[in-house]
Amino acid sequence: MLSITKSMALHGLEGFLIDVQVDISSGMPSWDIVGLPDVSVKEAKERVRTAIKNSGYELFSRKIVVNLAPANIKKEGSIFDLPIAVGILKGLEAITQTKNEDILMIGELSLNGSLNPINGALPICIEAKKQGIKKIILPKQNEKEASIIDGMEILGANDLNEVVKYLNGNIKIENLSTNWEDCLKLGKEKILDFADVKGQESVKRAVEIAAAGRT
User: Fold this and answer.
1) pTM
2) Residue at 202 is within a domain
3) Among residues of the chain, what percentage have pLDDT more than 90?
């Protein structure tokens, strides 16, 4: 069974949409990742396998082929762990909903299935928006920085099981968005600092003593 999950490769500040294609079939148990992956991407096999098992799912004896398309773009880092795991769970029919093909996913998996923060979440979200992506699932620790992107649903997840439950429609993950009006108000507030006062050491000392007496 073939499944496709969207992700993104980042080269400098330029992003390229990646189709994480996962095919699961019967046969001699094996697992290959193709599509110009670097060493850290190849290492995803053991991280993802163990994370899936420790999240309560059984891989059984299957032949698994993961293709990161297009194959002419080098894939680097551990950000493909989550879309690879989701693709496998789609193939195993642990994820049954079919209306999530347009969700972009990035995230590194721990062996217990939890999601670790990644580098480059903000530029990935910026590039994803440019290329028409409306919704992204990423590690919870990265949602705050990504939330400054207007016009996208930023969904932060804690672990693989939370992502599976969301994709199956069993739970909701709140979209985190930045309130720009509050940010602008904070930016206009005048913050006073003794470092801005030149000289007047005796006056500053008197103020410090007075302030200390109020505590």
Assistant:
1) 0.82
2) no
3) 69
The total of structural domains in the chain comes to 1
pLDDT at residue number 62? 87
Q: How far apart are CA 14 and CA 176, in angstroms?
A: 24
pLDDT higher than 70, residue 111: yes
- Assigned domain for 208 exists: no
- Name the residue range of residue 95's domain: 2-178
167, 97 Cβ separation under 8 angstroms: yes
CA distance 14 to 162: 29
d(CA 93, CA 129): 29
Query: Which residue is it, tokens 């294609």?
Result: 21
Minimal CA–CA distance to 95: which of 168, 158, 154, 149? 168
Per-residue burial over 26-42, b = 16 or more CB atoms within 10 Å of its CB, e = otherwise: eeeeebebebbbeebbe
Q: Is the peptide bond before 70 cis (omega within 30 degrees of 0)?
A: yes
Task: Please count the CA atoms within 13 angstroms of the CA of 171 that sit on its side-chain side.
Answer: 12
Give, for 206, the enclosing helix (H) or strand (E).
helix 201-213
CB contact at 8 A, 67 and 58: no
User: Which residues pair with residue 68 across a beta bridge?
Assistant: 20
Q: How far apart are CA 101 and CA 3, in angstroms?
A: 9
Residue 12 has pLDDT above 90, yes or no: no
Cβ neighbors of 160 (< 8 A, separation 6 or more) are 51, 52, 55, 82, 85, 109, 113, 114, 115
What average pLDDT score do residues 28-46 get?
Answer: 92
